[in-house]
Design a protein that fits this description.
The chain is an alpha/beta fold. It has one domain: Lysozyme-like, CATH 3.40.80. It has eight helices and 14 strands. The strands form five sheets. Strands 3-7-6-9-5-14 form a six-stranded mixed sheet, sandwiched between helices. Strands 1-2 form a two-stranded antiparallel sheet. Strands 4-8 form a two-stranded antiparallel sheet. α6 packs across α8. It is globular, with a radius of gyration of 20 Å. It starts with 25 loop residues before the first strand and ends in a 5-residue tail after the last helix. The N terminus is likely disordered.
Length: 344
């Protein structure tokens, strides 16, 4: 059996199909493995990132435990980095929960033995895209887990490696009102900035002698923990992209080709595994991308792929550079190809 973690492309047409052994492209959903076709490192793999751990992932081991964190008086205030979907709302149904929380019988089932796949498929219907403003997935996990006490199901590094930090049955802390019904991914990217805002883009991107823009990881963080040794990342579009999010024009560098390839494959897999998760993004009456927060009544009924800025008016991720049609059209094509393949 091969453990996950190689950053090479893992080609197959088994998107969203059950996996019975490890090939390095599988994600875990309610304890079961499903193929994606992209390189995946699980939290159980060497080099993985595990949100179930209470202690810090980085720094001196003698200062990593929960007692040390409390003594220092900084860092997370709660040792739990994730929780159980819908448990907070066992006695009520807030407007933003879509089809709503668990019944008392379902709560008993989940508490007694965890989520089963059929029940999880009934409840999960959103896939939320974030940029991490950390530059690499290692830095992202350090900030989320060690510093802020937050969590996310997936991280997507600049070389296209996907890190899964916990089973998708868990409720991670990444998108406020959508946490209970959603899956989240932090994409390694330094973010989008309006004119006049302090921006790190000049420290993270530079043109080489060949005229191609490359990602320049600051020396202070070494190689950034990127799994592919000596990897040099290039945004898929050479120049920064300007576009409007939340009514304000912002500048951002695009994702790398490797990130798009993996994001397309993961999106296709998730939309296959979760039948209520539609492979589309929020559109206006003319079919164009909505670039601001969705009204609460629309967010309640929305099922599909969306950005953090569709959920919160104070967020701008995944930014104006993200090519939504590239992701959705690519995922749909992959789903169609997979549907034509014999099930294994």
């Amino acid at each position: 059996m091969t453990t996950g973690g190689c950053a090479q492309r893992v080609e197959n047409d088994r998107t969203g199909q059950l996996a019975y052994s490890r090939a390095g492209d599988e994600i875990v959903v309610a304890g079961q493995l499903f193929h994606t076709g992209a390189p995946v490192v699980l939290w159980t793999d060497p080099g993985g990132y595990d949100h179930s751990r209470v202690e810090r992932r980085f720094g001196p081991i003698e200062r990593s435990g929960w007692a040390a964190l409390q003594k220092e008086g900084k860092g997370p205030t709660d040792p739990a980095r994730f929780g159980t979907r819908f448990f907070r709302f066992a006695d009520k149904q807030p407007e933003f929960l879509g089809d709503g929380p668990l019944t008392p019988e379902e709560i008993a089932r989940v508490r007694g033995g965890g989520w089963d796949l059929p029940l999880l498929r009934q409840k999960v219907d959103q896939f939320v895209l974030h940029y991490d403003v950390c530059g690499t997935s290692k830095q992202c996990f350090r900030i989320l887990h060690d510093v802020r006490g937050l969590s996310v199901h997936f991280m997507l590094d600049i070389d296209g490696t996907i890190y899964q930090t916990c089973d998708l049955k868990e409720r991670t802390y990444h998108a406020t009102s959508s946490n209970d019904r959603s899956i989240g991914i932090e994409i390694a990217n330094m973010g989008a900035y309006a004119d006049g805002e302090k921006s790190p883009l000049a420290q993270w991107y530079a043109k080489g002698p060949d005229g191609l823009t490359r990602i320049t990881i600051p020396e202070a963080i070494g190689d950034g923990g990127v799994r592919t040794k000596n990897f040099v990342g290039h945004p898929i579009r050479n120049d920064p992209v300007r576009g409007v999010v939340q009514g304000k024009e912002r500048t951002q560098y695009d994702l790398t080709p490797q990130q798009y390839d993996s994001l397309i494959k993961l999106t296709a897999a998730l939309c296959t595994v979760f039948p209520r998760l539609e492979c589309d993004y929020p559109r206006d009456a003319q079919g164009n991308l909505i670039t601001s927060k969705l009204p609460d009544d629309q967010l309640k009924t929305y099922r599909g792929v969306l950005g953090h800025y569709h959920i919160q008016s104070d967020k701008s991720d995944p930014g104006p550079a993200l090519q939504w049609d590239l992701v959705i059209d690519g995922a749909r094509a992959r789903m169609n190809r997979s549907a034509d393949q014999p099930r294994q």
